[in-house]
Amino acid sequence: MADVLAPLAGKILALLVQPGAKVEEDDELLVIEALKMENHVYAPSGGTVKEIKVKVGDAVDDGALLIVLE
């Protein structure tokens, strides 16, 4: 099981996966906007998306839990 954490504080712009999706290491999962720049978040390992803890428009802090992979 792997947790995907926010690499920086910002706002969720896009979710690119759904629960149940199978992902490979380095697949793009979501996009966070910070300082008017888009920051792409990638899977740290392969697995299945178990749970998405955020939705588009949410503000997140650095280190916040975004997605749970199993």
Task: Give structural attributes.
70 residues; mainly beta; OB fold (Dihydrolipoamide Acetyltransferase, E2P); four-stranded antiparallel β-sheet; 8 strands; 54% strand; globular
Describe the structure in your own words.
- The protein is mostly beta strands and 70 residues long.
- The protein has no helices and 8 strands.
- Strand 4 and strand 5 form a beta hairpin.
- The model has no long low-confidence stretch (mean pLDDT 97).
Q: What is the quaternary state of this protein?
A: single chain
Q: Strand arrangement, largest sheet?
A: 1-8-6-3
- Morphology call: globular
Percentage of residues in strands: over 45%
* Terminal Cα span: 4 Å
Output the CATH class name: Mainly Beta
How many helical elements? 0
CATH topology: OB fold (Dihydrolipoamide Acetyltransferase, E2P)
Helix content: under 10%
Largest beta-sheet details: 4 strands, antiparallel
Number of strands: 8
Rg calculated over all Cα atoms: 11 Å
Instruction: Name the helix and strand elements from N-terminus to C-terminus, one letter apiece.
Output: EEEEEEEE
Low-confidence stretches: none
CATH superfamily assignment? RNA polymerase II/Efflux pump adaptor protein, barrel-sandwich hybrid domain
**From the 3D coordinates, which CATH architecture would you assign?**
Beta Barrel
Number of domains: 1
Structural class, by secondary structure, is mainly beta
Name the average pLDDT: 97
